[in-house]
């Protein structure tokens, strides 16, 4: 979120830093005369904290070459990882048909919000935090703060929507597809962006967010660009951007956890009720007893729900770690006139919130098998593997041959297949080769994979057995 700033007057407290909070506008006499207004929670800033020497001179904490190099390198790495990671998420969903689920619409929109943070917010925040000087004018300062609040709020609200989506998928599997249609998902995404913009651009440009309605007044002494919030805006914006979404995410996680634990207990009861007489084995395969089929289906559902719990729990935990310190400080400081937060602490807490935009793709890559495989395909193929086009052939096998599938053993087979097609077409002396010709049949299917149906892999795409904790909904059968 946008930085808010706390000014200390080094001359008012003798040696060392003082705890007097002063509004960052006007000359020295005006600043000292308005202590009472600051005590009422009028305004606060987060970039003006300085250290005072015994001689009374103030030196910004960050005016050291080593600090600037270390801090700048670390924050630049965060920006790069955020751009690359979220760019991979968008590319994976756009390139692989298996990932184009309703849930991943929210994931893509979340990635877009995180990319926007990395482009419009992080670079300018990096320069400002290091130099402690805003160099881009007050007009762009308005835009910078508005984008900061909008994109960070959108990122948080998307995590909340994803938690609700998984809650519906697990608690109401039979009605999930009806309730969470593509159209409703797009409406929810639009609502997230509208809500995020409504609590940022409108109050900031209209001056509702602070008692000082003209931010260019902050440039009397030195250029600054901070979010000077009053008590009302602090409560409303923090509740909308963090506290309410946090409660929703915790509620969804607790409900899902209880349901999964109940289902696991039921599976254990069913397994214990099955006697050896039920297990009629034929060539290593169960006999198809209805009770066994029911246990297997429920067991798969429990495993899938357990993966959803692990993924959602990780997202909620990282979300709290990254954003809770910031919003505690954001809400407490306007009500605490004696609270002085050092610049280094404020910068670290603010960027800890930005890190949440960086780690979301890492969560998908680590916990979601579909995304992990898609990332490997994109990185290993170097962009050469492209999804197949609909209607690219006369049969389903022909179309599958032109696709890079998500299965680990598919391995960029599309390039070999396309080459085989060109070779087959040129070697037929002007005659359109039959789809059943030997060379086309050999190349039109991926290699056989153990555990998959079909002598030539006809059912490889439909028989992919791995589960996705975030992109797949539970089995409809119970």
Question: Can you characterise this structure?
Answer:
The chain has 478 residues and is mainly alpha-helical. The protein is built from 15 helices and four strands. α4 packs antiparallel against α11. The longest helix has 43 residues, at 231-273. The chain crosses the membrane at residues 69-93, 105-125, 137-164, 185-208, 232-254, 308-333, 345-367. Keywords: Cell membrane, G-protein coupled receptor, Membrane, Receptor, Transducer, Transmembrane, Transmembrane helix. It is a multi-pass membrane protein.
What descriptive keywords fit this protein?
478 residues, mainly alpha, Rhopdopsin 7-helix transmembrane proteins, 2 domains, two-stranded antiparallel sheet, transmembrane helix, G-protein coupled receptors family 1 profile domain-containing protein, transducer, receptor
Blueprint of the fold:
Blueprint: E1 7-8, E2 21-22, H1 28-33, H2 35-39, E3 50-52, E4 58-60, H3 65-95, H4 102-131, H5 137-171, H6 176-179, H7 182-198, H8 201-206, H9 231-273, H10 290-332, H11 343-367, H12 369-381, H13 396-401, H14 413-426, H15 438-443
Antiparallel strand pairs: 1-2, 3-4
Helix pairs in contact: 3-4, 3-11, 3-12, 4-5, 4-7, 4-11, 5-7, 5-9, 5-10, 9-10, 10-11, 11-12
